[in-house]
Amino acid sequence: MTTARKAPVSGAELIAEARRLAPLLAEHAPEGERLRRAPDAVIRALREARIFDLMVPEVHGGLGLDADTFLEVGLALAEGDAAMAWLTFFYIEHNWMFCQFPMSFQEKLYASTSHVLAPAVVAPTGKSVEVDGGFRVSGRWQFGTGIEHADDWVILMTLVPSDSGPVQLRMCALRRDQVTVEDDWFTDGMRATGSNTIVVEDAVIPAEQAILVQPISDGTGAVHDLPLYRTPMQPLIMLAVSMPAVGQARAAVRGFAERARNRSFLGSKTKLAETPAAQMRLARAELEANQAEQLLRSMTTELMALRNNATVADRARMTAMTALAVDQSKRVLRLVHDASGASAHRTSDPLQRGIRDVQALSAHPTLSMDTRLETMGRTMFGFEPGVPV
């Protein structure tokens, strides 16, 4: 059985679809919070718009688009809802991971579909041991973003047991029915991601469903002769985790401007927009949100120019740029929230939800500002980075 070929979609058309869908994400954001998973209607709309096909090569029926389109689609969707945007970007990027596995496995995976919805937990909190014909996988992986709408597969990072030598990581693809899910995603933010814990007990997988991570990290393990598949993994992951924050900063600036135009100042006839304080806050928020966005644009341009020619220092700088963009986005949200009045503290308020979501996503270990600055500084002095870049 072969993948049914769909009508081609250009990058510009996909970006337009993302902009069209952003209000839908915003509309369903309260539902996602309540359900603690993505609303079915949103997943369905994203599928129909081919958003999840973005990184899948055309040979598998995907769109074969690059990081620049990913950025534009990402920023557009992120203005609607941070949690759904996060989930969407992970689903997109996890297809990029699947397309690093041997072609024999890819052909089975994409035989009847142009994308696969799957979680991929990259923290190596489990292990994979070589057995006859494959590997035995066991462990417990927290933060399984996307498991609630997973099709038939999951990706899990594992440690490769070794008595000597450097630690190696192995990426393993397991069937959905080989894992169990612990319903433990009770959080103050990013609730709609449904990032429950995934547990595996002695699941055996064939050899074609496991690959070493180092070549993918360096951008040298490409099965597909496409620039995107010669791109280092960590900066691409960092782009995915930072876009929701930057999109929410943009939305917060726009929302504050609208709120200030319609809200009276201390019960007077003066609108908040007429006060110097609101004007200065709006101007500063706009400048800082734009700075955050430009950091991602500069990083994406550099990533596409360098690909796997990027040095460790280059990659450390690019990952620090994305972390800084998130840090600035948090500041923008606080800046406008502090001047938005008591109504902005209602849990149903989009700005309040945006603050909680961005604060929660910024706790992702890859976005630690201290770690990213230290890592960049280490490489500037010629030391090893100490963490993945």
Automatic annotation (TrEMBL):
Molecular function via GO:
acyl-CoA dehydrogenase activity; flavin adenine dinucleotide binding; oxidoreductase activity, acting on paired donors, with incorporation or reduction of molecular oxygen, reduced flavin or flavoprotein as one donor, and incorporation of one atom of oxygen
This protein is called Acyl-CoA dehydrogenase C-terminal domain-containing protein
Q: Per the UniProt record, which residue ranges are transmembrane?
A: none
> Please, which domain of life does this record's source organism belong to?
Bacteria
Q: Does the keyword RNA-binding apply?
A: no
Q: Where is the Acyl-CoA dehydrogenase C-terminal domain?
A: 240-367
The cross-references to PANTHER family, in alphabetical order and at most eight, read: FLAVIN-DEPENDENT MONOOXYGENASE, OXYGENASE SUBUNIT HSAA, MEDIUM-CHAIN SPECIFIC ACYL-COA DEHYDROGENASE, MITOCHONDRIAL-RELATED
Sorted alphabetically, the keyword list is:
Coiled coil, Oxidoreductase
